[in-house]
Design brief:
By secondary structure, the protein is an all-alpha fold. It has helices at 4-13, 15-20, 32-46, 51-76, 86-95, 103-119, 124-130, 133-159. It has one domain. 74% of the residues lie in helices and 0% in strands. 42% of the residues are buried.
Length: 160
């Protein structure tokens, strides 16, 4: 990653960048989105078990993420820099709404979320290309998270 030094300097300089860069997980030299998603897994464990409260927290994190990602993007001078992974955090949290907190479900949520985040089926790809700023950075991962959520719940339905 050619601008890793620049990213580290910005990471240390700003709490907004620190969070947008996934507390440093987005600085992984290979597959920062995947590493950022792995870093989001423990967040599910500290999320409330009440679904309504869980969703409210995710909504607040989404709103915060729009600002964080926009701030970091402007600071780095790159729209949707690969190190910005707060959007992956929120997307993975969406994928895990009302999902049992088991290793199998974590792995399924992770696999489905990464699949849709990488393949970018409509409207994931549309949002990625058409929306700008922090909203554009966040929304495609929200859609990927919703696709993953639907798939995980379909698997749960078929298993149980």
């Amino acid at each position: 990653m050619g601008n890793l030094k620049l990213t580290r300097d910005h990471l240390l300089a700003s709490p907004a960048n620190f969070l947008a860069l996934g507390a440093g997980s987005g600085l992984a030299p290979v597959a920062p989105g995947t590493v950022g998603t792995v870093a989001a897994m423990p967040l599910v464990l500290i999320m409330p078990r009440n679904i309504a409260v869980y969703c409210a927290v995710v909504f607040v994190l989404f709103v915060l993420g729009v600002w964080l990602c926009n701030t970091c993007s402007e600071s780095l001078g790159v729209h949707d820099h690969s190190g910005i992974v707060f959007d992956e955090w929120v997307g993975f949290l969406i994928a895990m709404i009302a999902v049992p907190r088991t290793l199998l479900m974590f792995l399924l949520g992770f696999a489905f979320f990464r699949l849709f985040d990488v393949l970018k089926p409509w409207p994931v790809g549309w949002a990625d290309k058409r929306l700008n700023g922090g909203m554009g950075i966040m929304v495609d991962d929200v859609f990927a998270g919703l696709y993953a959520l639907a798939c995980v719940h379909l698997v749960l339905f078929l298993i149980y």
